[in-house]
Amino acid sequence: MAKPKRKHWSEKKAEKKARRENAEANGGDDEKKEDEYDRRNHFPAAIHPGSYASQLDATDTTDKCGTATKKRYGLLLAYGGKQYSGMQMNIGVKTVEAELERALYEAGGIARCNYGMIQKVAFLMNTSSMLITPQIGWNRAARTDKGVHAAGQLVCAKLCIEDGKVEEFRLKVNSFLPTDIQVLEIVLVTKNFNAKNSCDRRTYEYLTPTFVFAPKAAAADSTEGGGAAAAGPWTAKTNDEFQSLEVDPAAWAKQKEFRLDASALEKLRETLAIFEGTH
Q1: pLDDT higher than threshold 60 for residue 38
Q2: Structural domain boundaries in the chain
Q3: Is the pTM here over 0.85, yes or no?
Q4: Could you tell me which residues belong to the region Disordered (predicted)?
């Protein structure tokens, strides 16, 4: 027995629109239950306070976006995270995501009505207002913490890019980005592609100076003022506090000379092996 023919998406869309119109005419009761469980209703429609869009004049509706049809693209980027409080956009701090969004907006890839709402969904359905808004559908393959760099981070979003001008657009975006953030490549992806869900592995590399493994006596020898008392216990200062410290050049040179011996290196590897596996 032949399977019933699947309805085209346009037919389903028309039927859903008809149901909404019928529900609105009847007071919305028919669609009330469906709306309550539509997860898209719970996405914020307000400008994210961590976006540069929150600093714009609300009366300025100038749109830098052209007439190009919005399509889903994957953006491969690399960045040095020293100056940023992580990848994900957050209020009150400088983030990689906010810088990237601003550059995409300035380059004309994001419309003014969508600027500051990178995770806006296709439909914000409300039977009283029937608000329908465009989709950005922003997602990322991974998040990085404060001060962490990325050699290959993938972001996916729907952008307005003219056909045949993807490379030109990439260069334009980079011109609006800080020098420590660069888009390496932009490719067109399928409409259902999701950078996070399609990611099957993430590779992290940790770089540690060898002198952090130096015995306390060795650390004391390189501490100005001399003696084990001057070295003291390892502190728990934050990264910001350490960045503000002045380091004695002679002590720094002494620290850089330290190298792990074979036995210490083997002990370190045995310790790290305990953490191998799935977490």
Answers
A1: no
A2: 38-188, 210-273
A3: no
A4: 1-60
